Every structure is written in C-alpha cells, then in structure tokens.
Amino acid sequence: MKLLNEILDYNEQFVAEKKYEAYLTTKFPNKHMVILTCMDTRLLELLPKALNLGNGDVKIVKDAGALLTHPFGSVMRSILVAIYELQAEEVLVIGHYDCGMAGLKADPIIEKMIARGVKEETINTLAYSGIDVKNWLKGFDNVRDSVTHSVNVIRNHPLLPTEVSVHGLVIDPTTGKLDLIENGYEMEE
Predict the structure, then answer these.
(1) How many domains does the chain have?
(2) Against a cut of 0.85, is the pTM above it?
(3) Residue 140 DSSP class
(4) Taking a C-beta distance cutoff of 8 angstroms, is the pair 20, 14 a contact?
(5) What percent of the chain is helix, strand and coil (3-state, nearest 5)?
(6) Residue 83, phi then psi, degrees to nearest 5
(7) CA–CA gap between residue 103 and residue 123 (Å, rounded)
(8) How many Å apart are CA 63 and CA 4, to the nearest integer?
C-alpha cells in the first residue's frame, strides 16, 4: 500500500471515531508564543513535551536547521503573522545538536539533483539569473552561532514590534535538555 493511501484510510477512521475532539482549540496560541525550530523528526513530539506544551499552546514554524536565511522570506512572514494576527508576544528560536544542516555542503545535494533528473543547465540558468544555488543550499558550522544569527535577523527586523522578546535555545534531540543561547528579556533592559 502506498503511504498516502495508508494515511487517508487512517484519517477516515480518525474522523469517524471523533478522535479530533481531544485536540480542539482555537487558532490563537494559549501561551502567546511562536517557535521557529528545525524540521528534524526527533523533535516532532520531544520538543513540545520538553517545553511543557500542549496542543494549542504555541505556533510552531519549522524550517531546515531553524535557519532564517532571508528577512523577507516565508519563515519571517509566518513569524510576523503570528505576532500581528495570532497574538504571539514572544519568539523562540530553537535549534538542536546533531542537526543535518550542520556542515551541509551544496555540491553533494546538487549532484543528487542531477542524478534525479534536474538538468545541469537549469542550475546554471539559476546562477546566471542571480540565484546562488550553492549558497542557498549550504548549512552552518555551529548550531549556537546559527541560532544567534536567526535571533538577530528576527530581533533586528524593521517590522518587528519593539516589545516582542526574541530568545534563542538549543535542544538536545535525545534528552530534550535546553541550553539558553540568547535571553530576549536581557535585551530589553
């Protein structure tokens, strides 16, 4: 059976048995917070449990490496929407140790793209058009520095309200232990 069919079959039963009732909440986060974190599978359940978060408590934006690379991209837009439309008052950037984006190099990814049918001419055309694919695909060297970078992009964004605290943390993807990297409250003093 294909994975989509498996998901749809389960979903039909989930709805029929009204299992969704255990998760009913509003679109507004109870704890008035938005979290930018990594898409790593180990964080799917661990991160909310390690932070004592339940369904409906926060908005979560997931991005490879929790790395904010463009101040006017979709990740920053999501953070601003959470603040202006969904009552978020604080931002947490949470990276994690043993991240796949740590030390990621673009060349192996580009080779895999070509092996799967992307034409080298396409990549060259993007470069000619001003899109630096190699820079766009690269990761970071140090997760703490990466979290600080993302915090600074958010904190210094011209559309961020000055009263919004932006914090940076790194989580251990095995134990859930948090290391504080940037305390947004200290920036307000």
Answers:
(1) 2
(2) yes
(3) B
(4) yes
(5) 45, 15, 40
(6) -75, -50
(7) 22
(8) 23
Phi, psi for residue 135 in degrees, rounded to 5: -70, -40
Q: From CA 175, how far away is CA 115, in angstroms rounded?
A: 37
Q: What is the pLDDT of residue 74?
A: 96
Q: How many CB atoms lie within 10 A of CB 68?
A: 23
pLDDT tens figures, 37-88: 999 999 999 999 999 999 999 999 999 999 998 899 999 999 999 999 999 9
Residue 66 CB coordination number (10 Å): 32
State whether residue 176 is helix, strand or coil: coil
**74 in the same domain as 17:** yes
| Residue 14 in tokens | 């989930």
Residue 116 domain boundaries:
105-138
Element (H, E) at 117: none
φ, ψ of residue 98 in degrees (nearest 5): 60, 40
**91 and 119, same structural domain?**
no
